[in-house]
Amino acid sequence: MAGKKFKAALKKVDREKRYTLEEACALVRELKVAKFDESVDVAVNLGVDPKHAEQMVRGAIVLPHGLGKTVRVAVFAKGNKATEAEGAGADIVGSDDLAAKIEKGFVDFDAVIATPDMMAVVGKLGRVLGPRGLMPNPKLGTVTMDVAKAVQETKSGKVEYKVDKSGIVHCSVARASFPADKIKDNLKSLLDSVMKAKPQALKGTYLRKITLSSTMGPGIHIDVAELTQAAAE
Q1: Domain membership of residue 186 as a residue range
Q2: CB neighbours of 64 closer than 8 A, spacing ≥ 6?
Q3: Burial class (CB in 10 A: 0-12, 13-18, 19+), 151
Q4: pTM
Q5: How confident is the model over 105-122, as pLDDT tens digits?
Q6: Which residue(s) pair with 46 in the sheet?
Q7: Cβ(158)–Cβ(186) under 8 Å?
Q8: Pairing of strands 168-175, 39-46
Q9: One domain, residues 62 and 172
Q10: Do 34 and 144 belong to one domain?
Q11: Of 18, 26, 40, 191, whose CB count within 10 A is highest?
Q12: In whole angstroms, how far apart are CA 116 and each of 88, 136, 143, 190, 202?
């Protein structure tokens, strides 16, 4: 059944066309094939070589309309900072006790925030948190003394992105149930952030290809020229 639905969705997409943001965000809602509320994901192919440190692209942004899902946040903090994190809505707060739980296999959370003084403890969890993309990072605002702000931003729809070995940024930007204009707002915010993160050392084309899709649906190619032209104006 899913195969039939996918084929039907595929017929709605012109594989040769490069869609505007508005067209793509409206069409992606029609292409969902699963019974659950699929996420809307974007793949941005960049003309970078991530093997060179100066061409690494990563960042974080709070999406204007969130991701439409509950984000469980774990915070490493002590004393007043632990209290602040709890007050901001953190789901799990701890220090050495939390580290011990994680070492035993506890990973029931979607994001990790830490105060700088806790990084000696968190650093030992690299083999657990690293592969899951959960390691706190000062550049992404997840190692900070302002834990309350970090918790609130994360729970309200902050997403992190990082170019992979193939030079592609993969990121969820919405749910298929979102109105098209909210999908567009979130997508544009992410793309603007990726464009601002362009490495200064890069020569040649930066944005090469952008594909939007729902979790189970076919991809829609977005007009890169339209975006780069708008950014230049």
Answers
A1: 15-66+158-232
A2: 157, 182, 185, 186, 189
A3: buried
A4: 0.79
A5: 999 998 999 999 999 999
A6: 207
A7: no
A8: antiparallel
A9: yes
A10: no
A11: 40
A12: 18, 10, 6, 27, 32
